[in-house]
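Can't paste images in this forum, so I'm doing it all in text. The chain is below; anyone willing to post the predicted structure tokens underneath?
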Amino acid sequence: MRNWLVVLSLFAGLQSFAQNEILGTWYNDIKSSKIEIYEEKGLYYGRIIWLEDPANSDGSTPRVDEFNEDPALTKRQLMNLVILKELKWNSSEKEWQEGTIYDPNNGKTYECYCLLQEDGTLYFKGYVLGITWLGRSTVWTRA
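Text version of the structure:
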């Protein structure tokens, strides 16, 4: 019985390790921003913590969410903006699912899932209407 408990404990530890491999800082696909992925109450979120171009074209003010479809949100700053929300770890699929990802370059939010690839990159698929082929993918690299 005691050996069985040890095996279960090790297995639980490995599962916890796998789901937390997403944690940390990642470059977006074109390395124009860094996103910090963190866990909160069992869900995973990502916020922008660095921008290659942190100021608007005039250079005097921080970049804002100018393309957001909600006019009330177009003045919020991109720095520290949470763009990845409520991803859940699915241990049988070995991927994070049922979250959303926001693209500040077009102001749209997509349903998404992501998975860690063998080369250590993070593959994201953003889609609409619950149809995964109605969307696009991107690959992030660890910063």
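The beta strands are 24-27, 33-40, 43-51, 82-90, 95-103, 108-116, 122-128, 131-142. Residues 22-142 form a domain with the Lipocalin fold (CATH 2.40.128.520).
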